[in-house]
Amino acid sequence: MIIYGKQVFFYLLRRHRELVNELYLAKECDRLTFSELAKSGLKIKKLDFKTAQAYAKGGNHQGFLMDIKEPSLATLQAVKKGKFLAMLWGVSDMGNSGAIIRTAYALGVDGLIFVAPRLNLQALLRTSSGAAASLPIVLAEDGLSVLNELKQVGFSLYGAHSGGGAIHNFKPGADKKVLIMGSEGEGLSQKIMRKCDDCVGIAMKNDFDSLNVSAAFAILCDRMMHAKL
Question: What is the DSSP letter of 69?
């Protein structure tokens, strides 16, 4: 798997050296940077511009590319041991997904569950600046079964909805919580909302439709994680 871009390149090199197979440079770098790369013990290969562009499929590689092993996904059994989980139901935009992964990892979310038929891990690693390699991520096709399983082990489920209760008034019903975000266009269906213990939303000061899903996630996640029983 080819990953490119300076930020994700150095994050994976420093935090997940075990995943990295080979380093590729498509530009000259300063002595300190090259020394760090050399000390990694990894093979360093110089690429010409055309080859680098082909490896990155036209993306902005900034001169830094690497070949890595595909990170392993987490299991539902493993993340159920946590206390705060996030669930993305049909969120398809890679930019939004990457931003949510970065936020979830930074705020201390114990696991992120994607309800989708498949995941583009290469894109998620890039858009999350490498955080997708650090945060436990689960792929689930049958989201309703996952909700049932989480409820059985004591999680309270909270669906994000524009008409939900204002998050600054949020009082958790249990110590173990799941924040569920719907797709960019459709949100969460009524079938999913009926499975939830409550719905949460963000009170808007001005007459505006909604926030981007990644911005909404950051606000909801932060306030839910700091709410006291």
Answer: P
